Amino acid sequence: MSDLADRVACSTDNSIYQILPQAVIYPFDGDDLTLAVQVGQRGEFTSVVFLPRGGGTSTNGQSLGDGVVVDTSRHMRRIHDYDPETGLVRVEPGLVRDKLIDFLAPHGRFFAPHVSTTSRATIGGMVSNDSSGKGSVVYGKTSDHIHSIELVLLDGDVATFDAKRAVGDNDVTQAADRICRDVEKILAPHFNEIEQRFPKMKRGFTGYNLKEVRAGDGVLNLPKLLAGSEGTLGFIKSVTLKSEPIPAHTALAVLVYDSHDTGLRAVPDLLEARPHAIEFIDDKILGAALRSPFAEDVRQVLGITNEGGAFAAHFFEMSDEDEQELERRLVSLKEHLNSRIAPALRPIGIKILRSPDDIARVWEIRRACQGLLAGFDKNKRAVAFIEDCAVPPENLADFVTELEAVLEARNIPLGMYGHADVGCVHIRPLMNLTAEDERRQIRQISDVVFALTQKYGGLLWGEHGKGLRGEYSEQVIGSELVHVMRQIKTLFDPLNRMNPGKIARPIDDQNPILALDEVPMRGAFDAQIEPDLAAQYSNVLRCDGNGACFNQDAAQPFCPSYKITGDRRLSPKGRVSMLREWARARSTGEVASAHNIAEELNEVLETCLACKACAGAGCPAKVDIPEMKSQFLDWYHEDRKRPVADLLVANLERAAPLLDRIGGLVNTLQSTALVRWSMVRGFGLVDLPKLRHRRSFLNQLQKLNVQTMSAATLLEMRDAERAGTVVIVQDCFTSFYDADVVLAQVELVKRLGFTPVLLNYRAGGKPLHVRGMLGRFRQMAQQNAHDLAELSKAGFSLIGVDAATTLMYRHEYLETLPDCPDLGVQLLSEWLGAQDLPLLDGDISYTMIQHCTERSLEPQTSSQWQSVFERSGLSVNLVKAGCCGMSGLFGHEVRHQKMSRALYDENWRAVVEAEAEGGLVATGYSCRSQVKRLSGVQALHPAQILLSHLRNR
């Protein structure tokens, strides 16, 4: 693809750099890789260079360049073979690690290298960087788990290299044998030099691993050379991996320290207790976690409130096949801490976790470290360029102390986390790289930190590959071995067409290895955006390329349009990249370019479901694409005609009360073939919901003796009357299309001993915001916000009905009205969580799926709903599912039918159709509507369930 959006999506990774490729191709299988190489040998294409790309999460520009990106992550995700006897599994390079873990789990096995980006890191990328991550003190690196690699070579041959290939009498007409013979010849004169110069540490030299490629006399382990080669030697067609048995029993000790220095100095002694992993986080991350959606986990699971002076934590994990042996080792660990650790280095607190759920929550906090730092300073970003320094564990504390001093002298704060057991620290300086003087410091800091790693016997690149740091190789291993690396590169890629500028260049190539400060930086492009636009789209500039939106887990809300298409343009990161490019073109006066970019940008934003997952806990930068989309559409339609459907949507909320007066007629007409055809042809809408007859609704309210009041009338109440009054805030969708839910919520509040009052209906403006009609939305928001704020200030309890609409008051209103106060409209789960609930009798087990916006923006609501049902004596299973595919009117639009239905099939259908009608609970109006539309099942709201049991008491 040569579309700008495809190219822009692949112009960045998780590093500080930005390079626009010439094109992007998405091979469907290994044959397409061979075809790409063959085409590249023809005439005008012989100068094309290839840039293999997996998850795009590298921290040092590994997959960036101005050639042709070959992205295997979209289609090459297959698992080909699994041998239950040996545990060997053959996979394609685009397979994400978590998908492999899911496949292996029923067999009692797992793939050991555990990177924090496991939800989007591809196996090909892990091989190319020789990734390791948590647990490497026991399990080592990716290269330790490779049985064989199938590689597409630049001459079009396909060669399979296994971990133990004898050199000598093999058939030299075979590419693999020929290459092994030539590698042996290249290495043979330099064995002693390799042994002396290569660092002796767990996180050894990567790209190219000359030391470990020689498995023994006459035996080569070529996968050790290919792992860590960062796509510079050929295309990975498939990898056969070794899997490991899942440990039968695991426990985790949370060790709390009064400083990270104390904790790091204790590491060498802690290693004597034989951990499977020791991970650490510093005070900045602990503090950020206590201010984040992880706060409850930090307090409850880790037992840290910071009231006791906790400034660092170690997560000390142990595993064993024998439960009693594991318990013995835990006792031994406590004894070890008291007897073998110097008093000054002992933790100030220790908590042992045995529950798999608790342990999983701890590792979620650890995986979120980068994201927690992303929100630390709104004017600076936690940037990666000295990201993965590694030194022997006994030197780690001294190394960190000096490194902190280097950055402190430059007035640069930092956050730290990492793998204490192998001396690898993830250092994230907080910098503003739109400032030229701070960009200049990248070189200065890198040189100083490199010198520190040398001083302490380590490496600047200890885990995440070299990328654009290859220039330091000669200072580590000397010119003789750099020449050997160039010979290896020449053997595989003599014309320097595979990811040039990284690791090594062929012997006859005069182009130098890319210098880390001579490659375009993303901050330099962002600096071109004019201040007003930068302020308006500030969330866009916060994206650091972490790639959390590439998560393929169907149970997670983030990001539905990417998840179902695999199209990186349609991810938050892809959309952010185009928004940045559009804002830059507008700012620099490139009128024609800005116009063309705007058309492509409108296309990639059009499939955003406005689920707000990218504004919640899932996205480290909380880029909030729906908000950015709304602002863009507001600008875009200043001089472009809006679609006819926008006019219908814009007036939907205001028209609903009028249409409801003739609801019977409207519903009848809506059922006719002519009206359905007209809605499809004229407005592009299908399967529109039926109105709920308002008269029946009002009659039911009258029977309940519940009044409907205006805000002004409520404010006239005496103080004594206000105390027990609960105001139900209506929304268009439940009041006019699902009124039984409103009635249930009203009666539930009444039966719990309160006086419910229904606030007069007013349009909230959600459809206006989604369609980018911000002028009208702002007016509506101002009117509603004033009344809600006054009611809240007067002491009324306010409860919304639909989760997505209720959360609009906290997000879209605040984004549009900067001075808007907290309007105090609670979600039902929040209000119920603060009430004394009666114990109910129920013999039905309910399955609940929450609205994805609710889960994303207020993740604590999951535990709130669980608690509400459990305290009421009811059994509920909260199923984690992504977007149902409805998302307001998205699922009713003709152009979105394929995506809407595919999302439902992936996330919801199996759960819905496994439940008997009456046992399924869904908190969102959109979700219940989609369930009814596509499965013919009537899902209920939690209020309806609780009320039915209250009635039967």
Describe this structure as you would to a colleague.
With 953 residues, this protein is of the alpha/beta class. Among the domains are: 79-245, Uridine Diphospho-n-acetylenolpyruvylglucosamine Reductase, domain 3; 248-376, Alpha-Beta Plaits (2-Layer Sandwich); 641-826, no CATH class; 829-953. Helices cover 43% and strands 13% of the residues. The protein contains 44 helices and 29 strands. A hairpin with a 4-residue loop joins strand 4 (79-83) and strand 5. Helix 16 (396-409) packs antiparallel against helix 17 (436-455) and helix 33 (739-751) packs across helix 44. The model has no long low-confidence stretch (mean pLDDT 90).
* Share in β-strands: 5-15%
Count of beta strands = 29
Relative helix content: 40-55%
Runs with pLDDT <50, length 5+? none
Distance between the termini: 64 Å
Number of helices: 44
Radius of gyration: 30 Å
